[in-house]
Structure to design on (292 residues):
């Protein structure tokens, strides 16, 4: 019988401090957040996200400039209506960047390599969701902050009320970011090809918006305003706007708003269900990919 021999070829054991699970999650979060804006990647990967950031900032800067000249409060855009008004730009950001975060590892079959380290499937999913939500929050909160700072610089009256409206709109931006990130990542995770992922996310937003607008239009023609309001629960931007209006006291930016008080509570519950459901679906998706 042959005997086995272990040869010492010079490998050195790691004797440093074990950084652990929290460090791995933080590293995954930072890596995905940088990827959402193309940082650390070729220049062409930065064009789309930063172009969309610039487009988001333009109306805010223009609104502040007009107010500085005219001194008419109505010329300053409402904080809570900024995201619903520019929802097309936000949807494009989700559609173009969610596949970058969700589908590249699946396309190149490298997911098992991540799970060979001390990181769980849920940690992997939460890091991606947090990174995508942070990227969206930065996209939406930056122009709202420009509006608020611009108003302060130009000495807008009732600054205390504007501070309250600004903080309320930031809460709305957080909820927008969580809901949109959840939807975008789930769709992108099941379309490994980036082009298909972009088209699928855009199709989801377009289909739900078109369907809801059609139902609301027909309901208003029949003076059924309650139905028009409840229909808003079936499209993500209207859904979060209902929470802003009914629970945070913001002014309505949508065609129909579900009646209070049940409308706001139900909308918030649906937002929570969307986020939790997306987390569960992504968990199963990456767990299956990690075993293949």
């Amino acid at each position: 019988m042959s005997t086995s021999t272990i040869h010492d070829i010079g490998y050195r054991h790691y004797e440093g401090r074990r950084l652990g699970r929290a460090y791995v999650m933080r590293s995954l979060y930072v890596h995905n957040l940088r990827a959402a804006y193309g940082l650390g990647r070729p220049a062409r990967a930065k064009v789309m996200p930063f172009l969309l950031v610039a487009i988001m900032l333009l109306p805010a800067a223009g609104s502040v400039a007009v107010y500085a000249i005219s001194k008419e409060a109505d010329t300053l855009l409402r904080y809570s209506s900024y995201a619903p008004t520019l929802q097309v730009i936000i949807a494009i950001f989700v559609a173009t960047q969610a596949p970058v975060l969700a589908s590249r590892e699946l396309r190149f079959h490298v997911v098992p390599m991540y799970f060979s380290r001390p990181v769980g499937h849920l940690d992997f999913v939460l890091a991606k969701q947090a990174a995508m939500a942070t990227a969206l929050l930065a996209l939406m909160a930056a122009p709202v902050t420009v509006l608020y700072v611009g108003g302060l610089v130009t000495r807008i009256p009732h600054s205390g009320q504007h501070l309250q409206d600004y903080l309320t709109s930031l809460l709305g931006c957080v909820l927008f970011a969580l809901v949109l990130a959840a939807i975008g990542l789930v769709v992108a995770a099941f379309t490994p090809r980036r082009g298909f992922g972009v088209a699928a996310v855009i199709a989801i937003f377009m289909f739900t918006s078109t369907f809801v607008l059609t139902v609301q239009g027909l309901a208003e023609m029949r003076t059924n305003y309650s139905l028009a309001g409840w229909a808003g629960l079936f499209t993500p931007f209207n859904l979060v706007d209902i929470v802003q209006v009914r629970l945070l006291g913001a002014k309505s930016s949508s065609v129909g708003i579900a009646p209070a008080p049940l409308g706001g509570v139900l909308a918030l519950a649906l937002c929570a269900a969307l986020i939790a459901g997306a987390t569960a679906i992504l968990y199963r998706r990456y767990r299956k990919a990690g075993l293949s």
Remarks:
- The first helix runs from residue 20 to 36.
- The chain has a mean pLDDT of 89.
- Residues 121 and 284 are 8 Å apart (CA to CA).
- The two ends are 37 Å apart (CA to CA).
